[in-house]
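Thread: sanity check for a docking pose with 2-acetamido-2-deoxy-beta-D-glucopyranose

Original post by kr_44:
Hi all, I'm comparing my docking run against an independent structure prediction. Below are the sequence and the ligand SMILES. Could someone generate the full complex and paste the structure tokens? I mainly care about where the ligand ends up relative to the chain.
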Amino acid sequence: MPVFDRLSIVVCHAVVPLLLVLLSASGHPQTFPCRLIQGTALCNSCQLSTIPDHLPHQIEEIFLDKNLMLNLQDGCLSRYPFLRMLSCANNRLMTVEESVFSESPLLENLNLADNELHYGHKQVAKSFSSLSKLKTLDLSGNGLSADMVSVLVQNLSSLETLYLSRNSMLRLDESTFRSLHQLKELNVERNLLFEISGAFDHMKKLQRLNLAFNCLPCLVNFEMTQLLVLNASHNSVEWFITNQSLNETFQLETLDLSDNHLLFFPFLPTYNRIRTLLLSNNRVGFYQHFANDTSSNWTTRVEYYNLGQNVSNITMEIWNENLHGDLSSVELLDLSENKVNYFPHGFIQQMPHLYWLRLRSNCLQSISLTPEDLPVTLYELDVSRNRLTELKASQRSISELNNLTHLNLSTNDLQNLPSRIFTSLPNLSTLDLSDNAVDVCYLPNYTSFSGCVVLSNMVSLKQLYLSGCSIQNIPSSVFKGTPLTHLELSSNPDLHLKQESLEGLANTLQHLGLGNTGLQEFDFSPYSHLKSLNICRNSLLEIPESLMALNLKLLDLRDNMLTTIQSQHASMLAQRLQTVYMNGNAFNCCHLDWYRTFRKNKDINVVDLSEITCLDTNHRHHKIVLLDVVHCGGLGNEESAVWYILLFLTVSISIMGISVIYMLTFKPRMLPRAIKKRCWRPTPY
Ligand SMILES: *[C@@H]1O[C@H](CO)[C@@H](O)[C@H](O)[C@H]1NC(C)=O
Ligand SMILES: *[C@@H]1O[C@H](CO)[C@@H](O)[C@H](O)[C@H]1NC(C)=O
Ligand SMILES: *[C@@H]1O[C@H](CO)[C@@H](O)[C@H](O)[C@H]1NC(C)=O
Ligand SMILES: *[C@@H]1O[C@H](CO)[C@@H](O)[C@H](O)[C@H]1NC(C)=O
Ligand SMILES: *[C@@H]1O[C@H](CO)[C@@H](O)[C@H](O)[C@H]1NC(C)=O
Ligand SMILES: *[C@@H]1O[C@H](CO)[C@@H](O)[C@H](O)[C@H]1NC(C)=O
Ligand SMILES: *[C@@H]1O[C@H](CO)[C@@H](O)[C@H](O)[C@H]1NC(C)=O
Ligand SMILES: *[C@@H]1O[C@H](CO)[C@@H](O)[C@H](O)[C@H]1NC(C)=O
Ligand SMILES: *[C@@H]1O[C@H](CO)[C@@H](O)[C@H](O)[C@H]1NC(C)=O
Ligand SMILES: *[C@@H]1O[C@H](CO)[C@@H](O)[C@H](O)[C@H]1NC(C)=O
Ligand SMILES: *[C@@H]1O[C@H](CO)[C@@H](O)[C@H](O)[C@H]1NC(C)=O
Ligand SMILES: *[C@@H]1O[C@H](CO)[C@@H](O)[C@H](O)[C@H]1NC(C)=O
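Reply from moderator J.T.:
Ran it for you. Here is the predicted complex with 2-acetamido-2-deoxy-beta-D-glucopyranose included:
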């Protein structure tokens, strides 16, 4: 806007001299503190202790974060009647005088986060009473107790968004937010809340509630039907229970209960729209098998006693799977790091729209990859770090899982997989079989054999992880017809890769992991698309020559036996590589030209540079970054050894010469004796 452009120039000229005086008086950098962009003044981090009073009259937004203000004084905003937004986060405000906002009738958004408003909260509350249009208020990080908060927001009935994270609230009840009927979003994360009683009942418009990082022990009798997002992660919640007698559809779409102490799958509303259900890092298991067990005295009902004075019983039948509520809209279920050892019959099929099923680190012993047991919509299945010994699948029907793209089976105990189980998944793109004792093989069509998996002719497969599988042999053609871009074979120490093992991958492979594979001779030059190569832990004495033909961006050379890098190799690598790891080799301190080449080239990043050591001629380790060039300058080099001997001789001769001259000059009396001694023997003449 031209008007503002001209205005800001005028303003700059008018304000600069004055501010210069101010700033030089306080010894601060002499720059014009505020930048003006249209109706916004940006005065963050300017060491200001008051609100600048020379901003344009029409200003609508002022940012004053990270300054040194202690107080907002009456009248400091009176020049700016059009103010809609004021941000004074990260100052040292202890209070705000009572009439500060009385001339800011349009103020909608006020950010006072990270100040010390607990000191003068009563006065601050009074100043808020004129903010009849305030919609968004941030009071995070002000050391506020629940009582202070209830005074502060007492009359802010227009408020729609309220941030109160990082305060000291312990308990919320009906009185805390009494007048906030319009509230849509409330964030009280990182307080010390251990109890909530009726605090939200009147907030009929509340859609987003963040209770994360508090101390809540349970969430029972959940009835907030209008809520879209509930985040109660990082508490101590053992139970999540909805009032299941409510007949309404809950609007809830996202429920985050991760990092709690849940013992049972949460009891969700009977009717709901939950799409994202996050339950990772709890203690969830299923116990239905106890339900019919009449021999033991297992209780089948649990009673919860309200923590308030009025005790009311909430009774749940914990073994009854129907009481888990409606799961039919769930798209993402994250149950990572729980205690799931099986799923009740029909449990997963209740989720016909499930795309992401994350079950990492549970106790599953078997899983069934069949359209009868998994929804055909499934896109990602992560069952890594379980106790799987068995993968059930029927060759014929597995192809119906045609959306399955990511399958992570790493770190299990899988051994005898049906050999063609993966070739039948039509859209599989990433397969992680690491840390299982699986073997790979190439079988002619229509033969099947268990004991090895077939990975050829999988046109969709791009990324394959086979590290730590104790693979010894990769026969030729194993990857034929499978356009892998990413192949991880590391930690198969007996592999000893042969040239023909990677047949068919020359035109696609971009990442190859061969760390700790006993790698010796391998010609990398056919793999012209390789961008990233890991050959760490292979006892290599030098960098394979064939790498020089490649356009690598990342190279991992750690823990080999390299003593140096030839200078022409070093300059080639330095030109192409962006990232390199080289720690754990036996570099010679006197052959560090490669290091200087790498240092000169700014594009190459030696990630572990500070840890790289070299050995000097006495087999002492030096960090190469600390190595003083003078210390070494050619030690160990044969040519220079000759020079050293020469130098030594010269010095010795000089010293001898000097001694002789010294003796001759200063100790003349010694001479005759020496001569006498030498002449002691009677001369023959
Ligand atoms: C809120 O409004 C009531 C009634 O108008 C008044 O008595 C009270 O003092 C106000 N509270 C604050 C903190 O201004
Ligand atoms: C819940 O809150 C935590 C802490 O702020 C955050 O890390 C997490 O992403 C939130 N969850 C969702 C689903 O937004
Ligand atoms: C659950 O909701 C029903 C229906 O609104 C109500 O009658 C009942 O009291 C609620 N249960 C509890 C424990 O509040
Ligand atoms: C739920 O409400 C619908 C209509 O509002 C009604 O038809 C149905 O009978 C109710 N169900 C229960 C269990 O109250
Ligand atoms: C428990 O018993 C019921 C009826 O007797 C039966 O339908 C159900 O399959 C049994 N559940 C288990 C886990 O054995
Ligand atoms: C079950 O409880 C009853 C009474 O409390 C007791 O007599 C019985 O021994 C218990 N049975 C088992 C199997 O623990
Ligand atoms: C407890 O219940 C009584 C009546 O049943 C009610 O008057 C009282 O307000 C309740 N107390 C609390 C803290 O809810
Ligand atoms: C809770 O339920 C138990 C068993 O059903 C009953 O004995 C007890 O009186 C109930 N307590 C209250 C406060 O309703
Ligand atoms: C496959 O999964 C994706 C989620 O990644 C989803 O958007 C898509 O609708 C699914 N396709 C089918 C056919 O289910
Ligand atoms: C297979 O995956 C591709 C993308 O990876 C996607 O476009 C396609 O829709 C998927 N096929 C099916 C049947 O879901
Ligand atoms: C598979 O899971 C493991 C362990 O949970 C994880 O480290 C790995 O990155 C995952 N693989 C892929 C391809 O995401
Ligand atoms: C094996 O099957 C693949 C595709 O499934 C086909 O391209 C190939 O020609 C077949 N090979 C033989 C020997 O039949």
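The first strand starts at residue 35 and ends at 37. Hope that helps with the comparison, let us know if your pose agrees.
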